[in-house]
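[User] Once you have settled down, look closely at the record that follows, and write a paragraph about the fold.
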Amino acid sequence: MGEICEENVPFLGLDEFLDEIAEIHENILSYNENLDKIEDIQTKLMKGIGWGQEARKNLSNDLENVSNHNKAIEKTVKSKIKAGYAQNLSSECESIKQEKLTSMAQLLMEAVTKYKNMDIHFKEKSKQKLVNAIKITGVKLSEEEITDKIERDDIDSFITSSIIQETEEAKQQLGEVKDRHEELKKLEEDIMDLTELYNEMMELVQGQGGTIDRIEEKINTTEKDVHDTVGLLETTRILYDKALEKKKILAMIGAAIFLILLIIIISASTSGTTTEPTATTIGGIVVADDTMKPTTSIPQACDPSQDPDCVG
């Protein structure tokens, strides 16, 4: 027999659980829609100074707003999935919840992976744009040296450099350097957060491997028991059919014996019934029951006055 399901908060029952799963799924769909918006904004930001500083600032704000929305979704979905996994999912009746939770965790991992790859790609392009923006200022450093300073977060030396002329174009260049550097640092933080989120989901899914194995083992054991029971029932049915057939044969033999005894009894009764024998006297011989038996006739007295031979 399977274990009785324990319904725990927040998934009180199967209906409530499926409602939660549907909400998680909707959140992940919104998350993916936001990724399309983020990718579009990142593409526009790559166009650089041509947008103007104000337009670039607006795009950066839009990117931040969509990114914050996705972070809120990440927090909500992660919380619900972790709460679901915190329940007792070791019983057979919880296998459907196990499957749904794992499916949602994998969907989130796929979305996070897509987001992370987008940010890595955008980071590399942003870094190159930043290097180019710094080179425009006239800094006498090689691209490798500039890249090294960026990776060591040593951007202040570029900003305070006396090489940058106080012209409108120089100010615009300086502004782009600052913006791109801030975007780069933010991208690095986002990538780390996404990596951490992915690893958390991976640990949750992998952590259920033993539970899944136990459920499958119970299911396999149950299937074996059912198979053995079916085999036993089949054997019992065969034996029952054989016994029933024997009963039928015995019943037929008994009926035949009874019929034979009945015939014998009827025959005996018929042969034992007789009629009174009739006796017939023929020429002094009595015939009875088809058997002729000799009889002696008693002589009658004679009258001497009438019969001269009568002695008297």
